[in-house]
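Illustration: Single-pass membrane and coiled-coil domain-containing protein 4 homolog.
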Amino acid sequence: MRQLKGKVKETRKQKKERKLDNLSIQSKINTVVIPALGILFLCLVLFVYLKTRPAIIA
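Result:
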């Protein structure tokens, strides 16, 4: 038999597992990636603020 072109058809079980995996990845993005990016952004803002504020004359 010759090989058919195209990818193998997904079963219902595989489709369901793939959707559940995508949902878990989305929840990880909301709980891990976004807070980490927020912390990096705040560090950048704090660094720029500290480097550009006027010097205190004593």
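Reading the tokens back as a structure: The CA atoms of residues 2 and 44 lie 59 Å apart.
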